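Subject: sequence -> structure tokens, single chain

Hey, anyone have a minute? Need the predicted structure for the following. Not urgent.
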Amino acid sequence: MATTAQLFEEPFDADEYIERLAWRTPGGGSKGGAEAFDPKRLLEEFENHIEELKQLDEKIQRRVEKLEHQCHREAKEFAHKVQDLQRSNQVAFQHFQELDEHISYVATKVCHLGDQLEGVNTPRQRAVEAQRLMTYFNEFLDGDLRSDVFNNPDKIKEAADIIQKLHLIAQELPFDRFADVKAKIASKYHDLERQLIQEFTAAQRRGEIGRMREVAAVLLHFKGYAYCVDVYIKQCQEGAYLKNDVFEDTAVLCQRVNKQVGEVFSSPETVMAKLIQNIFENKLQAHVKEKLDETRHSDVEQYLKNLYDLYSRSTALATKLTEFNLGSDKHTFLSKLIKSIFSSYLESYIDMEKDYLRTRGAMILQRYYDSKNHQKRLIGTGSIQELKERIRQRTNLPLGPIIDTHGETFLSPELVVNLLQETRHAFERCNRLSDPSDLPKNAFLIFLLLVDHLCVEHIDYALEIGLSAIPSSDAKNANLYFLDVVQQANSIFHLFDKQFNDQLMPLISSSPKLAECLQKKKEVIEQMEVKLDTGIDRTINCMVGQMKHILTTEQKKTDFRPEDENNVMIQYTTACSKVCAYVTRQVEHVRKSMDGKNVDTVLTELGVRFHRLIHEHLQQYSYSSMGGMLAICDVAEYRRSAKEFRVPLVLQLFDTLHALCNLLVVAPDNLKQVCSGEQLTNLDRNLLHAFVQLRVDYRSSRLGRHFS
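Reply:
Had a minute. Here:
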């Protein structure tokens, strides 16, 4: 049986179990082991083992039944015990309810008895207190203070309580009958009050917080309590302002006193508020007045810097002080204190800011022009100037003498940075020092001054000078500096626009002044764009005039009708070479001077006029066969220059012109085929005919008949 039990090892597997049983049986293995396989012996072993398993099963079943019976018996016993415990718990709960009712009854009786005792004791205590006060009152009435409480310095707290009550009683007595005793009580009242304040002051000097708290609690009911607080505030500030930084000293002082005030006084928020008010109305106000009054009339720039710094530090200090308990509306309280100090200065702030910016801007401008040894010209205003401007826009003619600026643009990045820097500081001061309701209006006034100094007095003036310096279109070897003016004006205006967005917009974004600022900016831009467009247009005319001058002086009629048709050694004419070199320089100049879409716009206009000039120039000559080939080479070189424009329209125009020049060399019989080509088919027949007529063999070869 033990052997059988060993075969039931966990985890149990029936197949494994049979294998192990067969293996343990002699002659029962699959290979027979040392002996041959014996099925009968194996069958016998299986039958014996089955009998053993049956016996084992019966034994286990009997044991299970025994354990089940024992479990049922113990379950019944446990159920009986639970029922007994429930009955015991119910009895205990009933006893607890009875006890609770009894305790409630006794407590009610005790409370009632306490109320009765209090009702009897309170009048008795009042009577005893009244008798005690009458005894002390009699001593004042007799003029002899015999009680120890009035003569013992250690009992000053008790004496103060008595005299305070007697003082209240004396105020209710008729003056004519009790004038003498009332005077004695008042005298003793003031004497004790003085002694208490002296004791409080001495305790404060010694740093005895506990004694200060006791005396302050006694003085709370005296009229001199406010004076006690004043003395405390005065002593707190002794030795607190040893540094040069009154704001930092104030923050440190309030941080130190705040904890002490809470330990000494019953209403610390009132005392703390009174301390801060005293500091603002005395220390800070005196400091601000000293700093501002010494520079208000002598140095406006320093005055504005000091005002901004002092006001900023005052508001920062007020922010720190909001950490302390100063009452229910501490923000309003601190704002009023700051306003009381700075109100007289803030009322006149914007006027002084405007005067300073106006003077400072004029000085910066004059200093720049003096450094250039330049006397500013008066730019006309009013109807005459408007008429001139209108004529100049429509005719593109210079009005007035041409000025030689020697390449000077009269635009200074350093000057612009100085003006913008001053304006940035002004916007910062305006944001800090202006009343919220006046902020947009004040910011707009500062913006107008910036427009006047930067845009009108500097940029617009430079544009006027630049326009006056542009030579006429037929001038020879003219130096064109207006594009440099354009480049610098654009750079300056980008800086102006950045300050407009970064510093002005946040100050006016939610006010009606926003529309006014945007309109003013739009007007300034439009005025400058008109002058820039006029100047660029006249500059392009000058460029074209220079090209025309080169072509007129360098191009010879024999270039396209060479005497020896078989001995032409050049790839393109000298005039073409010089024009292309000039065009390349001007294209590069335009790219350096412009940005964004303006580059393409200006180069497109220059390219169109360049094409028109070459087109008209080629029509002034007649061409032999070899001359036509040379003209084609010239146009190819012009087209190579046109590629530098990087403008499809310009390149297309020169492609067409190149195709037109092919008419100068094509065989007569092929004219119609060439004219119907992709690039020429949409052109006017008269234009094609005009180019064909430039051929020297036009009449002799009867090209007109082939062309028609």
